[in-house]
Write a structure and sequence with these properties.
The protein is of the alpha+beta class. The chain has 1 helix and 4 strands, in the order αββββ. The protein has 2 domains: 29 residues; 39 residues, no CATH class.
Length: 87
């Protein structure tokens, strides 16, 4: 790995201000944290679902899903529960 480059491949130009180097280190730390553990889904109510076309193949959490259906996926046209039924 080149000097000054973190594991995510980010690096600030050598002549960049101190705050830029600090920001890059913070982003690197965040990336490492995301790689190590479970990730959190953004949670929506069914009434406030975003347009599925804006989030193709995205996973979201549902605050008011029926039964045990609290995760949905977009196919780019609509949202579906993990069992394939429409939200």
């Amino acid at each position: 790995m080149p000097k000054g480059q973190g594991s995510a491949g980010l690096r600030a130009p050598v002549a960049a201000p101190t705050w830029v180097h600090s920001f890059v280190r913070d982003v690197e730390a965040w990336v490492e944290t995301q790689k190590r553990g479970p990730f959190a889904l953004t949670v929506y109510s069914i009434a406030a679902l975003p347009d599925a076309a804006d989030f193709p193949f995205a996973l979201i959490g549902l605050s008011d899903g029926t039964g045990h259906k609290h995760v949905a996926i977009s196919d780019g046209m609509a949202w579906y529960y993990m069992d394939g039924s429409a939200v």
